[in-house]
Amino acid sequence: MIAKTPSPPYFAVIFTSLRTEIEENYQEMATWMVQLAEEQEGYLGHESAREEIGITVSYWKDLESIRKWKTHSDHLLAQKQGKEKWYSAYKTRIAFVEKDYGFEK
Amino acid sequence: MIAKTPSPPYFAVIFTSLRTEIEENYQEMATWMVQLAEEQEGYLGHESAREEIGITVSYWKDLESIRKWKTHSDHLLAQKQGKEKWYSAYKTRIAFVEKDYGFEK
């Protein structure tokens, strides 16, 4: 689903990743991280798709809520396992959403 | 591939879309738009994946280059056909990338 974010301004975390072939516990952790993110203060929504690369964009009210989520203990464990097992490379970009517009049939 | 963007700051255009079932000319136009975007002044790279939703993030030097690309005549035609045929909904978000960090094995 396209995330139903409020009117800008808000923040986006663009997480782009390449997976290894290791499946161990990956889906369970990904599902758990989405559930946990949704409970966090300042979480506004997320969008995700994977083909050759994976792109997950999560939306946040402010930088403080992003910082808290980044350093959440369960999320830190997921990041550690991500580097060890599931990802061969990733890039995280923190961005300030100034403007949005859309279209719906 | 994860886009090899320069150090921030730069801009991101996050384009999230839902497709219709109409395939007519879609792949050709998508390929052509990527080629054309790559030739534009201020283009820094892009990332794309589609599952339930499609996410394409393109990266740009400044807002002026985004504005020029948005109003490029061939791109305007693609946008028009996109609304008429290929997309049932989309959202475009213009964002200022303040910070990035990554990991590579």
Automatic annotation (TrEMBL), chains A, B:
This is Antibiotic biosynthesis monooxygenase. Gene3D superfamilies: 3.30.70.100. GO terms for molecular function: monooxygenase activity. PANTHER family: ABM DOMAIN-CONTAINING PROTEIN, BLL5343 PROTEIN. The lineage of its organism: Bacteria, Pseudomonadati, Bacteroidota, Cytophagia, Cytophagales. Keywords: Monooxygenase, Oxidoreductase. The keyword Repeat does not apply. It comes from Algoriphagus confluentis. The keyword Cell inner membrane does not apply.
